[in-house]
Structures are given as structure tokens and as C-alpha cells.
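Sequence in, structure out.
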Amino acid sequence: MLLRYIIIGCLNFLIINSVIGQNSENRESILNKTEIQFPPVEQLIDSAIKHNSNVEFRKLDIEVRESLLKTQHNVWLRNLGLQGVANYGTFDYFNSNSNNQSTTVLNTNSKQFNYGLGVYLKLPFYDMIDRKNQINVAKVQLDQAKSMEQVQKDELRQIVIRLYEDILLKQRLLNIKSQSWGNARVNMEMVDREFRNGTIPISEFVRISDIVSRTEAEYETAKSEFISAKKILEEVVGFSFYKTNSNSK
């Protein structure tokens, strides 16, 4: 049993020292508590609405409905028109002169250009009866398009609020895990010196090593979750967030 503890302790000793040596500079930068200063949530919502393709689609649909409504208002103009006729050619004219004794017929021809221009108005019975209903349908369709745009904005607003609160929580958890990992690393260095000096048994060294390993795993998990939440929020709002070092203030 003692041999088993010795072997485990030696393995953990080698692993911990390797991790400490490789990640020393990286962990020191982590402990500087680098944070992202996020803009106000309303600014994120406005940016998300501006860059959202579904909202843009709804805006275009509203423009289409507005054009259709104008068309319905002006549809009567299709029954109003201007018609013209033009002819060019040789025309024959017959003139007759008569008196009590005889009748004289004269035949003449000439080349002429004749034209005519007029305005017409048709009033189909169906259009007269159903015109008001067609305009009302176009108005309702426009109102529906505006309502769908607002629904899209409300849904997007809720999504951004949830993502915003989620990333703030994940950033706080990451800072907590970062501090815990820093403390565990310092503690491991002290335990390592004590183990070298023979002041603590190998069982205690193994126990502390396990705690440090779990702490690092929790930190890496929190970091991964924070990065994922950050990328998702950046995708929704349409721009990237940058880190600022709180110690430089």
C-alpha cells in the first residue's frame, strides 16, 4: 500500500511540476483579472435589431405592402385612358349637283392625314362594388406586416437580454474559478516544497494534487463556456467585444 502511494505521489509530482512550469506565465496573466466591459444592454439590442436578417426581411415586406396599398388606391386609373386614331391615305369624295333637268356627279380624290384624340372612362361593375373591400384587405395586410416586424423585434430583444445576463454570469464565474485556480496553484507550490522537505505525508500530497486538478478542470470549463457565450452574443449583435485590463485603471 505504501509503495502504491509513493508511485502515485511521484506521478502527480511530475505532472504538477510540468503544468506549473508550462503555464506559469499564462496563469499570472489570468490572475490579473482581465475583463470585458460590455456596452449597455439597450445598445446591444439596437445593434442586434439593425443587423438581424429577419427584421430586415420584415421591413422589406412592409415596403411591399405599402406599395400594394398605393396600387389599390390608384387602381381606378386603369379604367381611365386616352385613345387616338390616325390615318393617312387617298380619300375619294363624291359631290352631286342636281337641277330640274339633270344631275351632275363629281368624283375627286386627295391625299390626307386624318387623326382623332379622345378620353375614355370605363366603370366595371365589380370594381365599383368590391373596391372598398380590396383597399381594406391591403390595409390589413400592411398592419399584419408591421405587427410581424414588432414581434420579431420583441423576440430578438428577449434573446439579447438573456444572452447578456448569461455572459455576465459566466464572466463572474470565470473570475471566481480563475481566482480559485490561482489559489490552488500557490497552495500546490507550498505543498510541493513541504513534500520535498518531508514535512507532509505522500497521502496529503496526493489529496492536494487531486484538488488542484479538479480546480483547473473547473476553470477550463468556465473559460470554455464564457468564450462560447461571448461568440454567440457577438454573432447576434453584429460586432466583437474587446478585453480591458482592470489593473491598468
